[in-house]
Design brief:
Layout: H1 4-12, H2 16-22, E1 24-28, H3 30-39, E2 44-49, H4 51-56, E3 65-68, H5 71-77, E4 86-91, E5 105-109, H6 115-127, E6 132-136, H7 145-151, E7 159-163, H8 165-171, E8 177-186, E9 196-200, H9 209-212, E10 217-220, H10 232-243
Parallel strand pairs: 2-3, 5-6, 5-9, 6-7, 8-9, 8-10
Antiparallel strand pairs: 1-4, 2-4
Helix pairs in contact: 6-7, 6-10
């Protein structure tokens, strides 16, 4: 049985301030937790699970604390509308400098604020082998439970950095910078990229003027219908599938 203080503590990790203070985040569900336990086992702090989840992993070695909880207790600590067997607390990834962009393709996100979009973009990057995402400081928090959930485990395999995006782009002297825009080169007519930075802009405002100043090439997804725009994550998937 979980104490009231432990319940409140885990619930508090749904808030950015508490996550940052404690340098922790939560992940939920058998798939996401299993992938993180496999990819970053050194970062697991605690696991809270139903008996069925614990029994299902009885033959696997455990080097972390596992607390059995009831269905009601799991519902009380969960950030999901429908809790799913297990919730794990992980330490946040160690801070690391943004690596060189030489010989690689990276995504840069300018004020992507919807957690679901950010999580899906991380998952898309993982699918296409993009290992680095550089975010403006006002993007959604990668440790937001909705972001973690939307990555479906990819958060453990893609490095997400937060920085002053215009300043960082200005420092990338030799990098080719591509911006997703309504008007630009048709991506269907472009060759695959061996290296470069692909910028995706805010869901409603697009790419900011300060970031657009650093762009070499504007690219677009040719519109055939009458929709005004595409969802940021959807657009990212289409662009990356053509260029990477």
């Amino acid at each position: 049985m979980l104490s009231k203080s432990k319940l409140k503590y885990i619930q508090s990790l749904g808030q950015k301030k508490h996550r940052d203070d404690e340098r922790l985040f939560i992940a939920e569900g058998p798939k996401i937790v299993a992938e993180l336990l496999q990819d970053v086992p050194e970062l697991v702090s605690e696991v809270f699970a139903l008996p069925s989840w614990i029994e299902g992993r009885a033959d696997q070695p455990v080097s972390y604390a596992v607390t059995e909880v009831s269905t009601d207790e799991l519902a009380r600590i969960s950030q999901l509308q429908t809790p799913n067997q297990v919730l794990a607390v992980f330490r946040q990834f160690p801070a690391s400098p943004i690596p060189s962009m030489k010989g690689t393709v990276a995504l840069a996100l300018d004020t992507i604020q919807d957690p679901g979009n950010l999580g899906t973009i991380i998952r898309i990057a993982d699918w296409f082998g993009i290992s680095q995402i550089i975010c403006s400081q006002d993007c959604a928090d990668q440790y937001n439970p909705k972001v973690v959930q939307s990555t479906m485990g990819s958060i453990g395999r893609v490095q997400v950095h937060y920085t002053d995006l215009p300043a960082w782009l200005a420092s990338q002297k030799d990098a080719r910078v591509y911006a997703a825009a309504l008007e630009g080169q048709d991506i269907a007519q472009m060759k695959k990229l061996n290296e470069g930075i692909i910028i995706i802009g805010n869901e409603s405002k697009g790419i900011s003027p300060a970031v657009m100043e650093k762009v070499n090439v504007r690219i677009t997804i040719l519109r055939k219908g009458k929709a005004e725009s595409l969802n940021a994550a959807v657009a990212t998937g289409i662009i990356v599938s053509h260029l990477v």
